[in-house]
Amino acid sequence: MIRDLMARRGQEIACFSYDDQHKFRLDDSSIRYYYPPTLGADLSKGFDTFEKLDDTADDHLDSLLKTIMALEQKEGKRVEADVITWRGMMTKFLAAIFTDRDGCASNPLLCR
């Protein structure tokens, strides 16, 4: 089974975003391109207008599940996937082999 999983290429089946007020949106409106900063950038620019996110509630899993439920309602069938995660978690897994100091925590769940 693991061999089959490794042989297939992952694919995006759905996406979600958060708006400026950190409200859930069932779209890709928050996707941005990465532009490398210019040399000599002022790292304190924008500090006075920075708004800290209230991180007392961890709603990433809720948003992931809302997205999957919306996809299943739209298609009228259950999502057939071996692994469902978000990009940041996969990045942590892939980068873990290159570091020996940083830990990576995950709580995998088996859903049927």
Automatic annotation (TrEMBL):
Keywords of the record: Hydrolase, Metal-binding, Nuclease, Nucleotide-binding, Nucleus, RNA-binding
Pfam families (UniProt xref): RAI1
Cofactor: a divalent metal cation
Catalytic reaction annotation: a 5'-end (N(7)-methyl 5'-triphosphoguanosine)-ribonucleoside-ribonucleotide in mRNA + H2O = a (N(7)-methyl 5'-triphosphoguanosine)-nucleoside + a 5'-end phospho-ribonucleoside in mRNA + H(+); a 5'-end NAD(+)-phospho-ribonucleoside in mRNA + H2O = a 5'-end phospho-ribonucleoside in mRNA + NAD(+) + H(+); a 5'-end triphospho-ribonucleoside in mRNA + H2O = a 5'-end phospho-ribonucleoside in mRNA + diphosphate + H(+)
The species this protein was found in: Lachnellula suecica
Protein name: Decapping nuclease
Single biological process term from Gene Ontology: nuclear-transcribed mRNA catabolic process
Subcellular location: Nucleus
